[in-house]
Amino acid sequence: MRIVVLFGSEMGTAENVAEAMAGELTGHEVSVFDMSEFDIADLDPRIFHIIVCSTYGEGDLPTGAEPFFEALDAQRPDLTGLRFAIFGLGDSVYDDTFNRGGEIAAEKLVALGGAQVGEHARHDASTEIKPTAMGREWVRTLPLEHAALSMSAAAAS
To answer: What pTM did the predictor assign?
Structure first.
């Protein structure tokens, strides 16, 4: 299965998590991209996407993710058939906006026809759990076989 891991980061943590996840996905063809350098025209329903997105400021998308989501808002591509999973990073000290970056990412992809797969992971920087360790553990729980079957069915129709 082809998997693209996209990260949106402010301080580099999301990139580290994305790379750690890619290391766990042995047996798959995995590519990791910074969202700021990824063309939304390359969002392909035949490829499973993992979005690793931090939260910045008052619940905003990180600077590294802004160009990607601005392009989605401007071009509004049809993402029907696109399967994706979200790993969000945040800090629970910010009660109302905790992990909002990942939530915004999921909302925007779903609004364009994408389908979220698996549990929406929400790392909390206020815990002792390392984000890369949580990312490695979480990515192993993703129902990739189910996503692959769904993507095959969508590609065939």
So the answer is: 0.92
